[in-house]
Amino acid sequence: MRFFIELAYNGKDYYGWQIQNKVNSVEEKLEYCLSILLKTPINIVGAGRTDKGVHAKQMFAHFDIEKKISNNFIKKLNIFLPKSIHVFNIFPVKKNVHARFNAISRTYKYYLTYKKNPFFQDFSWYCFYPLNIKRMNEATRILMKYKDFSSFSKKRNEKKNNICEIYDANWLIKNTHFCFTIEANRFLRNMVRSIIGTLVDVGREKISINRFIEIIELKNKDYCSKTIPPPCGLFLYKIIYPEDIFL
């Protein structure tokens, strides 16, 4: 049977989701714990690949196993996993449903604060620049008019695959925090942080709205702002699937 696993993690001590040689990854820890407890090698496939230091409030992955999973298995798994990873649910899905390719939308949130606080430093960016949130939201709305986000892609040789549909994006401010939310059908590598870095330059009035439009239309990574925002402020927040995948 194929199972989906729903989890959250604090990405501070991980080099991202994906397994890599000689470094900690969320995927490696999860596979190891599942394999030990289920007493068979388990390979998991995630819904995406968060980068080093990025957190997830909701992540999904799938794995296959012939055994039944007991009702108290999730409790055992959470005891065995590191404190930085928590599993919410494990449930069966239809055959051949894929955690990555069957997702219909993903939402990321990025938090920055303009007031230094040692208790926020692991989950937000302390941004001491004055920011014009009205200009930032004006530029953010422009994003939804475009499909090709080559200007915000880390990879240069995949322009044919740089088409994304952004469903919603906005900046909100609450107390001392700014929160950027973006929802799309898919995201390119480093896309969210590249967009944020460029929008922050709009908010700082380093670049104009017209220049922001030019950067998008140039479809060239060399013209967007540097990826300034640190990964600690970025959260994979929500993943949505069609209802018909579930048993």
Structural write-up:
With 247 residues, this protein is α+β, with helices and mostly antiparallel strands. It is 22% helix and 26% strand. The protein is built from five helices and nine strands; from the N terminus they run E-H-E-E-H-E-E-E-H-E-E-H-H-E. Strands 1, 2, 3, 4, 5, 6, 7, 8 and 9 form a nine-stranded mixed sheet that branches. A hairpin with a 2-residue loop joins strand 7 and strand 8. Helix 3 packs across helix 4 (191-203) and helix 3 (133-143) packs parallel to helix 5 (209-218). The longest helix is centred in the N-terminal third of the chain and has 13 residues, at 26-38. The chain is globular, with a radius of gyration of 19 Å. The termini are close together. The mean pLDDT is 93.
Overall helicity: 10-25%
Q: What structural class results from the helix and strand content?
A: alpha+beta
Number of strands: 9
Query: How many helical elements?
Result: 5
Rounded average pLDDT = 93
Residues in β-strands, percent:
25-35%
Q: How many strands, which pairing sense, and closed or not: the largest β-sheet?
A: 9 strands, mixed
CA radius of gyration is 19 Å
What is the H/E order?
EHEEHEEEHEEHHE
Shape: globular
* Spans of at least 5 consecutive residues with low confidence: none
How far the N terminus sits from the C terminus, by CA atoms, comes to: 11 Å
